[in-house]
Amino acid sequence: MNYPKEKIEPNPDAQQINECINLVTKVLGDNLLGVYLYGSALVGGLQKYSDIDLFVVTNHATTLSEKNELTKHLLHISGRYMKSAKRPIEMTVVEKGAVNPWHYPPRFDFQYGEWLRDSFEMGEIEPQNYEMPDLALIITQVLLKSQTLYGKKSEKILAPVPYVDFINAMLQDLDRLAADIRDDTRNVLLTLARIWSTLETNKIRSKPDAADWVIVRLPETHKAVMNRAKEICIGKKEECWEDIKESLKPCADLMLQNINELKSSVNLLDPCKRIQLMPPTFIIRLLKKEDIAPCAELFFNTVHHVNKKDYDQAQLDAWAPDAKLFIERFQVMLNRIAWVVEDNGQMVGFGDMTQEGYIDRLYVHKDYQRQGVARLIFSKWLDFAKAQDLKQLTTEASITAKAACEAIGFTLMEKQIVETNGVRFINYKMAYQVNK
């Protein structure tokens, strides 16, 4: 069966992702079952040094010729780590039968990563060992949160990873990790932070969130080290450790000590335990002038991804023909009650309401649907309405948004047909009674 490829709308990393989708569909053909974007792109947002993580599932093992073809092109698509404007690509390919039914340790078929570039450039394509415990971590992340770029949904292809195998995979390389503290400082510190926080809470956090979790648990003498690791990760500081180099190993050793103490007390066979994704920690703030262009881009991408299930392409193109066209139109939000929601510095939602209580726009990033972003913005509007003694809030909801509005407490006033750029749409006049 030929599945449609999911086109990633314009953003700084879109070209690389689309090139990867085109590459694997061309090289693997009918053998390809699914391609999934996961990792930082969907959990916490891509940071300054983040890879683009792609997981590929095939029906049967790839040939050496196919591996060579993938490698040849990925060497050009992927950016050199810390030396290129392009992001590094990490692509892992597995044969479905090697991971479903699940067994441990699992086996992979092919992997591309920038740490392998030198070997690939010397023609060393086949790995010495196909066992990869880390697949337990990757598959768990893909099942918890990923974007299907091609093929079936991940849960239709992959088997869940048992808790015991996830934990064993996470802990299997601790000694080597700690030994790399001088050569790979930031990555070692942030990885230890993720391991410690995951082992204690059974929740996977982004690297910046894991750093925050650890910082409040460290003595004052070690906080500066983890603060530095986080600031470098999110791009606030350049990579520099010379001034605190003597504090690096003691900080890593303390985290390692806590991990080892926890490891000895964890019941790996507890049937009630499972790994979850830590919900994002949202920040809501008033909209600023510099938010207008990102709002226009988020609006465009949301309409073309989220609303496409309820409107045809002609309607979508009339509704949101080009993000740049809306930068001027969105300036009006600066004079309204307008809020922006962020997750680790990434805009994930925005909305504006008039002084009279008319909600004009409310858009949530396609990867943050049903995570409470809209409710968070609405709560701010409701506070304003009560303070101003407004009796009701009104809006014109799309077909897509109607159910979400009803869940908040809006009632239907009128179904209507409106026209935008010569194209007709169905939407709904709705009202919320403030003091009910």
TrEMBL record:
PROSITE patterns: GNAT. Pfam families: AadA_C, Acetyltransf_10, Polbeta. It catalyses: streptomycin + ATP = 3''-O-adenylylstreptomycin + diphosphate. Signal peptide: none annotated. Residues 282-435 form the N-acetyltransferase domain. The keyword Transferase applies. The keyword Cytoplasm does not apply. Its EC number is 2.7.7.47. GO terms for molecular function: acyltransferase activity, transferring groups other than amino-acyl groups; aminoglycoside 3''-adenylyltransferase activity. Keywords: Nucleotidyltransferase, Transferase. This is Aminoglycoside (3'') (9) adenylyltransferase. The gene is ant1.
